[in-house]
Amino acid sequence: MKLLIVGGGLQGLEVCYLARKSSHKSILIDRIPDPIALGLADEFHKFDIRKDKKRTKRLIEESDFVIPTTENIKTLKSLEKASEGNEKKILFDFNTFFQTSDKGKMYSILSDSVRIPSSRSRSSPPWIAKPVFGSGSEGIVKLDSEEDLKRFEEKTHEKDYIIQKFLEGMKYSTEAIAMGGELYIYETTTLDFDENFQCCRVICDPVPKDALNAQEISVKSIYDNFDNLEYLFDVQTIYNGEEMFLFEINARFPSQTPMAVYWSSDVNLLDQLLNPGNFELSDTGCVVLEHFVKKPHDNPKLCSEISLLKGKKFEINSDLEHGVEAIIGKAREGKGKIGTVIFAEKDLNMIRKERKSFYKNF
């Protein structure tokens, strides 16, 4: 099957990876010459779809399905227009994405159905300030006091930011697919973040039942609150042991978690997007997916997922002595390496041993 993938960043890397696992042909479009997904794509077209609509239409017509893997609003609107007459090929809910990409609008829609962290005006420090637009943790700032808030306001005037109560707890992510009036919910993963609130690790290990039930309720509530929600979306939450709070919704193909789910449950979310249902979340043990950077004359260090954008020439390495697979690239600046490694074992203790050996011998 020929899949047209629009955007070669983190999400594009994810889809190209999963396409390889299912022997689909990946046809990648990006405006830059060396996006990080380049080495995993079967075919690459360098151009800006906003400027070459004729070429975009032709590639859409030649493909079986189109998967947008960009969050650029102008690019998505251009793609939506170019797909007129071929709407059934586009596996993307433009309307819901445009609604949920604005966190203020998203929280307003969901405020009566899911728990949302209290706003700054209704809580005391610490707070978390996050950009209104864009997914992921980029741009997030923790404000520990009124003084921090004052400095932040002077610097940003709170423009394009939402400030909420900072919550401690476990961070979870769950993918779901809505199609044909049915909702399919997949494995819930645990997310680890670094000191800058950037996700650096995904863990697939049994989630406590109370958290799993609360997560499922959140996913179903979100599905019920968006009219005509379709295709793949993910829900990220924070669980404090008693209540589940919504962090964000991404109404598009996510990154990093589908790879972890693939190795943990043997479910390929790209295949599910093409034909949902008929899956079993088999328990294959524990899986850890994490990102790392290795500078010359230095030990490998954990890094955020977004740091992968500082790399190039990524390739899949399945011939590992420790770990099941890695996607490794070269640093765009300097001589270091950067990548993602996946460990799969019976339990976390065994993974810790594998992880130690992998980095020692890298």
From TrEMBL:
Pfam families: ATP-grasp_3 (PF02655). Residues 57-278 form the ATP-grasp domain. SUPFAM superfamilies: Glutathione synthetase ATP-binding domain-like, PreATP-grasp domain. GO terms for molecular function: ATP binding; ligase activity; metal ion binding. The keyword ATP-binding applies. Coiled coil: none annotated. GO terms for cellular component: cytosol. Keywords: ATP-binding, Ligase, Nucleotide-binding. This is ATP-grasp domain-containing protein.
